[in-house]
Please model this.
Amino acid sequence: MVKRGRLEIIKDILYIVQSNQNSIKITPLIRKSNLSSSNFKEYYLELLNKDFIKETVHSNNKSISLTDKGLKFLEKYRTIINFVDEFEL
Amino acid sequence: MVSMTGRAVGQGLEQGLGKLMNLGIETEIIYSFVIIICSLMIYFRTKDLYKLSSHKGIKYFRQSFLFFALAYFFRSFIKLILFYFDAGEIRTLLPIFGNITLFVFMYFSSMAIFYLIYSVMWKKWESNSIVYLFHLVAFAIAITIILFRNPFIYFLINLLLLVFIVFVFYKSYKQSKKKKSHNLYFIYLLLFIFWIFNVIDILIPNYLRTFQLFIYLISLGIFLSILDKVIRKTG
Model:
């Protein structure tokens, strides 16, 4: 199995959130992302800091959803990968 | 009579070719303007991709073209001053100002080349200190150019840079299995070679005068082809 790159992992996490009607709890997100909890934490904090995802609390339940920036990343993901590939970056 | 006519035609051709190759300031300005615009378009068109991905390769690639734009700006500035005062070398004309301008030009142009190499090699060379090393080497190159007013030193520095670039790209090319990347390495190699010609053209005025038009056309072609690739890939 080929090791996923940083951008692919970010895309996968965002895609999981999006495909769950843009609202998912943290435990199923960790499980579906196929990452160790320490790795997941690292990516999760990065996504929060970059404003790709946001946390919303509803009656003591924390759920995660995509921001506009997160959606834009998903839209542009193919373009980014093609560009990196084209220029061997 | 026949030989006289032949000689006259020969002289006419020589003069015509001389005029064509002896480029005016308008050509210099258009040439620099197009390359600066190309470089800035590459820089700004990739801004969104970098902001979204924070990809280091994209970052160094963008910085390289920002430095190319700056270097070409100073290059055309030097050419404008030389044309305005009808002088051969900027340092002879304006010692302090000329040295500063030349220093900045050399520093930016070396950084442009280093950043472009690093955009391809960053995964293999990943280290925080390597960018500082590039700044240090670019600074050293610029200082050497200022201190030694010797064409031999200029050639030596550019030759060493070229050997370094060819060595790095050859190693990377050998490791790359993608067929399309061979085309990219060829474009980059041409870019470096013709950039060095552009640098020599500033350091040793008139040395490459005969080939100036050729150098300008190829350089324009290279920058336009990279811009075309960027536009096609960024949509």
About this structure: The interface with chain A takes residues 46, 48-49, 52-55, 57-58, 60-61, 119-120, 122, 172, 176, 178, 180-181, 184, 229-230, 233-235 of chain B (CB under 8 Å). The mean pLDDT of chain B is 86. The CA atoms of residues 111 and 138 of chain B lie 6 Å apart. The radius of gyration of chain B is 20 Å.
